[in-house]
Design goal:
With about 260 residues, this protein is mainly beta. Helix content is about 15%, strand content about 40%. The N and C termini lie far apart (about 120 Å).
Amino acid sequence: MKRILYAITIMAFLFCACSEDKKEPIDVLEPDIYDIEKEILELTGCKPDDAKSIKSFKLFKDNAGEKYLYGSKLSDGLESFWISKFSESGKQLWEVVHRSNLVSNAYNPVEISNGSLVVGNAIKKSDLDVVGLSPVIINKDGNANYIKVFDDNYIYSDVSVYEDFFFTTVSRHEMDANKNAANRAAQISNNGEVIRLLPGGTDQLSFPKKDDKYIWVSDSIYVTINTNNVNKYTVLSSSYSPIWSFPVSLPDYNPAK
């Protein structure tokens, strides 16, 4: 009897194993447009058009809280500079896609004083080999102005924003990390006019200090005001030294008793 039960058990096991082998394998689906849309929506609250073409994205919010996505998107099969603006509900309002000869992406958006954005157009041979990074001014309506600064190999990492203009400069860290980066700088008006190019970079510049109370009297001269002095400086200087200084004398007074 035991032998019969044992034989039945073995037969049942083999039958189940054979039946399992006959099942179709489970399909592993690759991520598709709906997965990408869902991921972007969950992370940013934005619903970009043609999400399947997006290669990289980051969220940026301006001072008014308006949302932008920037990074890269396929254009004719090449990963290209891309930035989009979105409504409060997440609807795409406009996008800018710019194709270069090499892989490119949007980098480090900065809002300037008139509400436009300055966005870096990073051109690279690989993720570790950035060969150019030039400024692009994009206004609130999505109109892009591609600024020609020095040459196609110009690279900047920092933006210093003032009322009517801004400076693009490169940090020491960037120069240490990127063999293609050089200490060059540019002063550009908010509407995209190149005011001056500075081949000596930050070695030729002396910006107002963070805690200074200052007024620009021209695109190269500013005045700082404190309780002791009124000082006049030129930004086109290698040292932070006033070109003119006027002492401020406060009137004498008798302390209250």
